[in-house]
Write a structure and sequence with these properties.
458 residues, glycosidase, 40% helix, TIM Barrel, alpha/beta, globular, eight-stranded parallel beta barrel, carbohydrate metabolism, GH, GH_1_N_CS, single chain
Length: 458
C-alpha cells in the first residue's frame, strides 16, 4: 500500500484519562468520584474491578513519559482528575493534586512533548453528584470554577485545552440508560444533564480565555450513521440527533436540533432546564473540535423499548443497531470500517462549513485480545492494521480539504476500561497489572516508525 503522508506540522499524539491510569484514588487528599462509588456497587463493573491499581501512573508517570518520548509523539493528551484538584468539587484547591499535574507537565516539556489537558473525562466529584450532578445547573458553574483553578496553575505551560471528553457518555450512559457512573436511568433528567454539560463547556471556555490559554475546545464522540435501508432514514436521523446533533447544533450553530422533537417526544416537551442566554454561551467560538471515533453505526427503525414515556430513558429513540456480519469486529465487538472516519470528517466539513473549527482526531484505537508471546513480544497485528486503516482515512479527509490538525492514538497504555474493568486492552503498550510491567507492542513500534518518517520529511 502507498506510504502514509501528512502535512508539515501535523500533530501525532497519544492519550490516556485520569481514572483509567492514575490509581492512587485515596492518595494525597484526592476525594471520591462518581466512578469510585459506581465501582463499589456490586455488579456494576466486570470482575468487581475498580480504579485501583489502574496503571499506577500517579507514581510511575516518569516511566510513562519516557515511553512517550521513545514513541516520538509531539503531544500527550491526558485528563485532570477533578476530585484530585477539588476533593469536594468546589472550595479550596488541593495543592498536592495540582502539584502532581504540574510535575507531569514539566516532565513532558523536558521530554519535548506538548501537554494537552482535558478537564473532564467523567470523574465528577461525588459531592457534586450528591447535589444532583450534571442534572443540576449549579454543576456547570462549579465546572467553570474548577477550570479556572486548573488553568491558573497550568496555562503558562499547556497550550491546548479540552473542556469535556465525550459528553454523550456522561449524559446518556451516566444519566440515560445508567450503564456508566453515576448509574442513573432517566428520561428528561438525562436531557437536562446534556444541556448542563454544554453550558458547563461554555462557562469553562470563558474561564480558560480569562486565564490566557492559547487553544481551547471540546471533544465529541461522533457517529457516522447510515440507515440499514432507505425506509430507515428517519430512524437514522433520530440516531444522529442523539449521538451528534444534540451537541454539534448548539456548539456550532447556536441552536437546538430541529429533529429533537421526533427523537425525544414527550421527554423534551417537559424540559424546563434551558434558559435565555444559554445558547450564546454554549456557542462561544472554539479553536478546535476534537473527534473521537472507533466504529460506524448502521441503524434500523424499532419501536420504543418502553411504551410509557414516564418510564422511558433518554436513549430509547426508536432505532436499533444492525451488526455488520461482513466486518471484522474488535474485542469490544465493534465493527472495523476505517473509511467511515473519512466520511464522517468530510460530512462535518460539508455540513458546517466556516462554522467548523479545525479538527483533531483525539481518540482512535482498538481493543484486541493480545498478550506477550513466548518471545515476550506482543504481536498485535489487528491493532496495527486498524491504526493504519484509520490514519489512511484521516489522510483521505485531508486530501478532500478537511482541516485536520492532528491524531491521538487511544491509548498509550492498557488501562481500566470503565464497565469492562481490566478485561479490554486498547494500549499500544501492554500493562501487566500484577507487576505493572510495561511492554511496547508491535503497534507501538509501527506508530513510532510512522512518526519518525513524518518527522524526517517535515
Amino acid at each position: 500500500m502507498a506510504e502514509l503522508s501528512f502535512p508539515p506540522g501535523f500533530v501525532f499524539g497519544a492519550g490516556t484519562a485520569a481514572f483509567q491510569v492514575e490509581g492512587a484514588t485515596r492518595t494525597d487528599g484526592r476525594g471520591p468520584s462518581i466512578w469510585d462509588a459506581f465501582c463499589a456497587e456490586p455488579g456494576r463493573v466486570a470482575g468487581g474491578d475498580t480504579g485501583e491499581p489502574a496503571c499506577e501512573h500517579y507514581r510511575r508517570w516518569p516511566q510513562d513519559v519516557e515511553l512517550l518520548r521513545r514513541l516520538g509523539v509531539g503531544s500527550y493528551r491526558f485528563s485532570v482528575s477533578w476530585p484530585r484538584v477539588l476533593p469536594t468539587g468546589a472550595g479550596k484547591a488541593n495543592r498536592a493534586g495540582l502539584d502532581f499535574y504540574s510535575r507531569l507537565v514539566d516532565g513532558l516539556l523536558a521530554a519535548g512533548i506538548e501537554p494537552a489537558v482535558t478537564l473532564y473525562h467523567w470523574d465528577l466529584p461525588q459531592s457534586l453528584e450528591d447535589g444532583g450532578g450534571w442534572r443540576a445547573r449549579e454543576t456547570a458553574h462549579r465546572f467553570a470554577e474548577y477550570a479556572a483553578v486548573v488553568a491558573g496553575a497550568l496555562a503558562d505551560r499547556v497550550p491546548r485545552w479540552t473542556t469535556l471528553n465525550e459528553p454523550w457518555c456522561s449524559a446518556f450512559l451516566g444519566y440515560g440508560n445508567g450503564v456508566h457512573a453515576p448509574g442513573v436511568r432517566s428520561g428528561t433528567p438525562a436531557l437536562a444533564a446534556a444541556h448542563h454539560l454544554l453550558l458547563g463547556h461554555g462557562l469553562a471556555m470563558g474561564a480558560l480565555r480569562a486565564a490566557g490559554v492559547r487553544e481551547a475546545g471540546i471533544t465529541l464522540n461522533l457517529d457516522h450513521v447510515t440507515p440499514a435501508t432507505p425506509a430507515d432514514a428517519p430512524a437514522a436521523l433520530r440516531a444522529r440527533t442523539q449521538r451528534n446533533l444534540v451537541w454539534t447544533e448548539p456548539l456550532l450553530r447556536g441552536r437546538y436540533p430541529a429533529s429533537e422533537a421526533d427523537t425525544w417526544g414527550e421527554l423534551i416537551e417537559r424540559q424546563d432546564f434551558r434558559r435565555d442566554g444559554d445558547l450564546p454561551l454554549i456557542a462561544a467560538p472554539m479553536d478546535f473540535l476534537g473527534v473521537n471515533y472507533y466504529t460506524p453505526a448502521t441503524v434500523r427503525a424499532a419501536p420504543h423499548r418502553e411504551p410509557d414515556p414516564a418510564r422511558r430513558d433518554a436513549t430509547d429513540n426508536r432505532f436499533a443497531h444492525v451488526r455488520d456480519p461482513r466486518a471484522r469486529h474488535t474485542a469490544m465487538d465493534w465493527a472495523v470500517a476505517p473509511d467511515t472516519l473519512r466520511a464522517l470528517l468530510v460530512d462535518l466539513h460539508e455540513e458546517y462549513g466556516p462554522a467548523l473549527p479545525p479538527l483533531f482526531v483525539t481518540e482512535n484505537g482498538s481493543a484486541e485480545d493480545d498478550a506477550p508471546g513466548p518471545d515476550g513480544v506482543v504481536h498485535d497485528t489487528d491493532r496495527t492494521a486498524y491504526l493504519d486503516g484509520h490514519l489512511r482515512a484521516v489522510a483521505g479527509a485531508l486530501a478532500a480539504g478537511v482541516d485536520v490538525r492532528g491524531y491521538y492514538v487511544w491509548s498509550l497504555l492498557d488501562n481500566f476500561e470503565w464497565t469492562y474493568g481490566y478485561g479490554k486492552r486498547f494500549g499500544v503498550v501492554h500493562v501487566d497489572y500484577a507487576t505493572q510491567r510495561r511492554t511496547p507492542k508491535d503497534s507501538y513500534h509501527w506508530y513510532r516508525e510512522l512518526i519518525s518518517r513524518h518527522s524526517a520529511r517535515s
